[in-house]
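so the lab meeting is tmrw and i was supposed to have these ready like two days ago... anyway. pasting both below. for each one the top line is the aa sequence and the line under it is the structure tokens. i havent really looked at them closely yet so no promises
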Amino acid sequence: ICDMRTRAFNVPPQQILTRDKATISIGASVYYRIHDANTSIMVTQDLNGSSRTIAQTTVKNILTTKTVQEIESKLSSLNDEIQVILNKETTLWGMEVQRVELTLPRVLRRNGDANTPILLPEYTYTPKSDLEYVTPGYNTINYDSTGLEMIDKRKIPEPEKIQNFDTKKSEPARFSPSDIITAIDGLSNRSHVTNTGAVYQLDVEVSREVTDTYFIDLKHGNGSAGVGIPRNCKPDCVISLSEEDMIDLFTRQLSATMAFMQGRLRVSGNMAAAMKLETFLSSLTDRVV
């Protein structure tokens, strides 16, 4: 059975170096449908993973050729450009990209000023699984930097209930794993590489069916971090943990040693390298804002 209705997925915010040497964080939302069920099954082994990967790569490849001003002023035309390029590939997979919506870019660093710290986006993060179907008449779409959030109009509270809402009891803002990795990529330096000398792969369990992968390279150059498996090298250790525990660990609300002893954090590979990660995180505590 192949569902041919319109669906959507989000490209997580990623750090991009623009043509004018600025660093921005930007994501996208992609609407698509299967137009050839047989091709979508026979040509690609994992259509879901392949489409997300090529969308993320295309967004980065296009925006690295633009300046910050071009990105901010020409979002609409960039959406169309990315859609056309994606369709050249996905049409061969039996999939049609119907619309692309870039999120508003957040400038993390302008003109390559290495002395300016990279700031994390200021918004409340709520973990989400894959998006629901886009059903006309029942869902409205709320765009934010985490992607799409489908809100059922039938579940919106009554006005009198909204008036009784106590803002003092609201949850504090939380960062997403992508935000944390983006900050680490900007804050890591040669000193961290010298002191740590290891490459980490993080397998973050979003749900029973979905696991996101990130890497932190503190072994080469000035250090780096990003989405996916480590680039051009094998990880010294692989760390598996839940999304919530990752956020707590990297914001220093959870001790790595305690999480390991409680079975909430699993390590395979070089245990000594894994222990150095907590030292690295402690050095970043005062710099991540």
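ok protien two:
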Amino acid sequence: LEVLLDIPLADTGLKLVSLECGCYQGQETEPQLLNLQVFTSEKGWMCICHSIAPINPGEVTYSVFFLHKGYSKTYTVALERMDPLQVKDLLFLNLDYYVAVFLPGHFLHLVNAQFPDLMSGDFFLTGEDAKINGLHESTIVSPLKSAVLDLSTGSLFTLEINKQALLQFLWKSKLDGERLATLHCLLLHVGSTAELETEIIKWISENVSTCFTFDPIQEFIIASLYWRMCPEVSNLDKLLPYTSLVDWKELIPKVTCTTHFMSLPVLKVRCCKVIG
């Protein structure tokens, strides 16, 4: 049995050429290397990520094509200080639940790859909060799920989100969007445990009155139950969302996002005849 996946590149703005990478949208006189990554997950999602040459100084633009959903999102991040040459340092990392977009020294954007339509799941960090500890950040690639390869040393590292750092960020965050994304990340990506739930309940008891655009108690109950039920109920993650905020409209400061629809990939199955 042979299965081919036909991906309509015309909708992505990308093209295939021989011997060298094609450029994004348009014909340049000089070929440019394309920062492009393709990620897949056992959960059933597939994404193409690539960065786009900046049009305005002080901005970084990148796109994530959610092939399993039939649309893409293009993000533009406004930065206060940036050397144009730093754009080439933009990294795409596969964290299984998230696609991480990392520009060393500037930001770390965790894009919810499994449920990209739920904007409440996107997690955007800047400054000291946006760090990958222990690595030469300009020389790493993501060849495997939740792993990075340090090209300067040849070492392969497991990549995971620090639970204690997330809890500290939850306590100091003032924006509802950051609080909600942190809450979902803790309960669904890090994993809901009795110890973690106790810490989150402490935070809720002191901050429930300062959350104006969502109910932290409701979100805590739904996400915790969702984490427990997913291993027991087949394909629950494909049928039900993990949040009640399916129409979340809160914007990430200094980040603009546009959505473009595209054709879904087509599976072509070829049956081979067995002679015997």
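from a quick look at the 2nd one: Confidence is low (pLDDT under 50) at residues 18-25. The longest helix spans residues 176-191. will dig more after coffe
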